[in-house]
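Before a colleague's protein record goes any further, I have to sign it off. What it holds is a sequence and that sequence's fold in token form. Would you go through it and say whether the fold makes sense for this chain? The record follows directly below this note.
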Amino acid sequence: MWPRRRFAALPITLTVRAQAASAWQLTDRLDTALSAFTLSPGGTLAAAGDTRLYTSRDGFTWTASPIPAPAASLAFSGDNLWLVSAKGLHASSDEGKTWRLAHKADALNRVTFADTHHGYATGARKTILETTDAGRTWTPLAAAAEPSTNPHTTTFHWADFVTPRVGVITGASLPARKGLTGPLPAWRDPKRAQRRPEVPSASLTLETRDGGRTWKHSATSLFGRITRVRYSRDAHGLALVEFHDRFDYPSEVFSIDLRTGASQRAFRRKDRAVTDLLLFPGPSAVLAAIEPPADPAVASQGLLRLLVSSNLQDWDEQSTSREIHAGRAWLAGWTPDDVWAATDTGAVLHWKP
């Protein structure tokens, strides 16, 4: 889809304005480590960790409920809240007060709905499941098997639909390698200098423009892993590439012209590890990043940094009402003037410029 050779040859146009005036306000610090965060179209926030789900309408007052298993991710579909765990897909119709196991599986990491009835669940072992009946039944998507990569080393990580007809699913095939590595990215590893170097892997993309009736797949050799892709209704796209092992940069963000397929690097800094992004028509975008700690042996978490752009080239780094330490952050929002952020350390922030 976006060949690495095209990425590497692009000029960089990047201006970062540090600590611009901002309305990012800390609304709460939940007393738990978070692993998932989402926002419903109706404005309900949901955050989850190992044992509990927290929901809120305003970011200040939260309702806590037990969850059936540690959350890998969360997603809303109409009135239903979906939780992905190592056990499978769990659904709740009462914002987490009660749950049912909708589909048993041990390889899933994410679920995404194109509309209230049509959705996809992605995961390891080349897994993509599809539902067309609001999650009552899930069946394997045939297009997932079309790439020639080894199923045992292939994981689909992400799905995004800008309309019920236009969507993308991304994944990677990462064969086993020798050398020092770990579950956390190298920038959080006290022994990061000893980590094995990042090498190219097979990056997979499946795209549909007819509501999932047909899919076009592509594969390219890519350093890092595409962990986020966002499309907007005015034919723009953003892709986040994160690097796990030793590399010059912790992450890169690329902008995509969906009409031509052309792409260019939109953001890259050695001292900013981007972990999530949002894209809106205009275009305008928000990045959530972590400033890596100087010495991970002393502090394994960095400082939260939030950046906004109105052209996908110049980025304003926004101040926050409090200093937030975290290892990862997520974003959620439906309009560029009403955005939420949450961190794995339990902080929840709101931005209304």
In short: The chain has one domain: 4-351.
